[in-house]
Design a protein that fits this description.
By secondary structure, the protein is mainly beta. The protein is built from 2 helices and 35 strands.
């Protein structure tokens, strides 16, 4: 009987301790300015804040100010291709060719200089402005063309691409999509509230999620033909800043903190332990098995992704299955990242093939410990087209398609 009591007591202490450990852990000190975007470029962390750009080479423990960007600027979006970094701000769009050391104004003819959303893909930069529409450059900002034919609102709040499908969220007219990389757009707002402000978009397969300011999170399972409210468990009347999906778990950052869902958004759980009560969550960044979070109080936090995997099926998916993930970005130019996971010590080969099945290169050919891995593929020597990447380990084989578009 005494042994049983000791076992129960030890289990209770362990359970209590685990719950206390499972919370957001602050990284470094406060930046003392709102974080609008948190991202990783060339193995360095970048944050766009209401006081310019800051960088970190030690995963957020210490930060340096990018001195060539005016500290009075609010940086709303950041992006990069192989040779350039881009920043959208409260007063123009900027380009850097030296790893963010110096920045040059490339706003050019764009009439409204508030650039609040941006997409960098395949040598093209899409810039969504506050009230000046959507613009495109294919030559790093030397020339710009307005690229919003069919969009009935000039305030572009968000831009997202999934394969060849592009989405643009507006301030007051809902969401629009394009199947020809922005040459023309169509409204897909049926079922959304009238005058919807769509500040965040995420798409996977035929399913699209969008955050409507003050109205909640909406989901479409048929490419936007219609929408259904999916905010069960999310506070009402809030702003949703960011939506992302990692394996089978959805994450939302909002003015009320962080929420996650393991059932495609049918229900949501709050995940705010460790955050201050008034601390809005703005931007996610995933590096390996760690998720980082930027907030509007200027703090950066981190947690292990495994803390959010609550069901046996989802935990198995993350830790106990061979998995080949979709490469990102896709389409790409000239490089992309391929991610895979293995649950046990295994010999792994990862190869690239051209569109007719001819082997081009071997990225991985070695024994690997259990874990999640990422490998970068550089297609700068290849021509535009469809390519395939194939993983083989033990009895597991999987092939996926990727598109190089120059």
């Amino acid at each position: 009987m005494k042994n049983k009591i000791l076992i129960i007591t030890a289990y209770t202490i362990l359970l209590f301790s685990s719950k206390n450990i499972a919370q957001w852990q602050q990284v470094g000190g406060s930046l003392n300015t709102s974080i609008n975007i948190l991202t990783q470029l060339n193995n360095k962390l970048y944050v766009g804040t209401n006081s310019g750009i800051l960088t970190s080479t030690d995963l957020g423990n210490t930060w340096n100010t990018s001195t060539s960007i005016d500290k009075s600027l609010s940086i709303y979006c950041l992006g990069a291709d192989a040779n350039n970094y881009f920043a959208g701000s409260s007063d123009g769009i900027f380009r850097s060719t030296d790893d963010g050391k110096t920045w040059y104004d490339i706003t050019g003819p764009i009439p409204i200089r508030i650039v609040q959303s941006m997409l960098v893909i395949s040598g093209k930069v899409y810039a969504g402005t506050r009230d000046g529409g959507l613009w495109l450059t294919s030559d790093n900002g030397n020339t710009w063309k307005q690229y919003d034919s069919g969009i009935s609102n000039t305030a572009i709040e968000s831009i997202f691409i999934n394969g060849t499908a592009m989405f643009a969220g507006t301030e007051g007219s809902g969401i629009f999509n394009s199947s020809n990389y922005g040459e023309s757009w169509s409204s897909i707002s049926s079922g959304l509230p009238s005058k919807s402000i769509v500040h965040s978009i995420y798409s996977s397969g035929n399913t699209i999620y969008c955050g409507v300011t003050g109205k909640g999170l909406y989901r479409s399972t048929n490419n936007g033909v219609n929408w259904v409210l999916n905010s069960n468990g999310i506070a009402t009347g809030i702003m949703i800043y960011d939506i992302t999906k990692i394996n089978s778990t959805l994450f939302v950052s909002s003015s009320a903190g962080v929420y996650y869902s393991t059932n495609n958004g049918t229900s949501w759980n709050a995940a705010n332990n460790g955050l201050q009560s008034s601390e809005g969550a703005t931007s996610f960044l995933v590096i390996g098995n760690t998720i980082y979070l930027g907030t509007n109080l200027g703090n950066i936090y981190k947690r292990q992704l495994t803390e959010f995997i609550t069901s046996v099926e989802n935990r198995s998916e993350l830790l106990s299955k061979f998995t080949l993930f979709s490469n990102y970005p896709n389409p790409f130019n000239p490089s992309t990242v391929i991610k895979y996971s293995i649950p046990q010590l295994s010999k792994v080969t990862l190869k690239i093939f051209d569109g007719i099945g001819k082997e081009y290169s071997t990225l991985v050919n070695e024994e690997k410990e259990p874990g999640v891995y990422e490998v970068k593929f550089d297609g700068s020597k290849l021509s535009s087209g469809v390519y395939f990447y194939k993983i083989q380990t033990g009895n597991y084989t999987q092939t996926k398609k990727m598109i190089l578009m120059k």
